[in-house]
Design brief:
There is one protein chain. The longest helix has 32 residues. By secondary structure, the protein is an all-alpha fold. Helix content is 70%, strand content 0%. The radius of gyration is 31 Å and the shape is elongated.
Length: 260
């Protein structure tokens, strides 16, 4: 690759030399129009070479990025997955997936994800994963970026950032705003908490996405308490029944006006 890139400047220099000679000859032979006509094939070739040089530099820069190294370490297929370079096809991939699983992404957000996929390996892989076959959303959730996917599933209104580190901060903040406003002791179960959270904050968590959000916050230094389940819940139910029974007993044992 290096040897190829090294020869490109020489090729460009040679082409421009040919172009100069062609222009001079054409001017002498037939005027400006014929000169321009003679330039067209060389301009096209020079343009292609310029794009190759630019593409090679961008690829080299991307391969040095932290994202590339992390994906290569964490993803089974490394960073060798293949995704179409067509912008319109990438948009169609996200749009189709968005419709299939009801992610509520707007056209502007889909466009932003598409644009981000050309500068971020993480966003590129998100689109690539959308090309895979999933029977249910749960299969799609099984990923190193389950926190992002839980966010896309649960929130009807989302913020999309091309910088993946910024996206991570957005998701942490969104989850934090919800968990800081709920008190675990107020609920008998996680299901009850989720239902209340969905009603209060107009989100759409299920048990899996809720627990992903809780785990993600804990990984980022925010450990929120969850309702105690199991024995505690049984005891609470027993206590509730006992209290209701005692209240009924009090009513039954209250003297009537006639008895007084």
């Amino acid at each position: 690759m290096k040897s190829v890139l090294g020869t490109i400047p020489k090729l460009i220099g040679g082409f421009f030399t040919i172009i100069f000679v062609t222009v001079a000859f054409s001017l002498l032979a037939g005027g400006v129009f014929s000169a321009f006509s003679g330039l067209i094939p060389f301009i096209v070739i020079a343009s292609i070479i310029s794009k190759l040089v630019k593409s090679g530099k961008n690829e080299k820069k991307r391969e040095k990025s932290i994202e590339y190294r992390e994906i290569k370490q964490n993803v089974n297929q490394g960073a060798g997955y293949k995704l179409t370079q067509s912008t319109s096809k990438r948009v169609r991939i996200v749009s189709k997936f968005n419709k299939k699983f009801g992610l509520n992404l707007t056209d502007d957000q889909i466009e932003r994800i598409m644009n981000a996929s050309y500068v971020s390996y993480y966003w590129e892989k998100e689109i690539y994963d959308m090309t895979q076959d999933y029977n249910v959303q749960v299969e799609w959730l099984k990923s190193d970026t389950d926190w992002l996917r839980a966010y896309l599933m649960a929130f009807p209104v989302m913020d999309i950032a091309s910088d993946f580190s910024v996206q991570k901060k957005i998701v942490v903040d969104a989850f934090y705003q919800i968990f800081k406003g709920i008190t675990a002791k107020s609920y008998y179960s996680i299901d009850e908490m989720i239902k209340d959270v969905n009603n209060r904050y107009l989100v759409n968590f299920n048990e899996m996405t809720f627990m992903i959000a809780h785990k993600f916050l804990k990984q980022n230094g925010h450990d929120f308490e969850l309702p105690r389940i199991g024995v505690t819940r049984v005891e609470s139910d027993v206590e509730k029944l006992a209290r209701e029974y005692d209240e009924m007993e009090d009513i039954n044992n209250t003297p009537t006006p006639l008895a007084r």
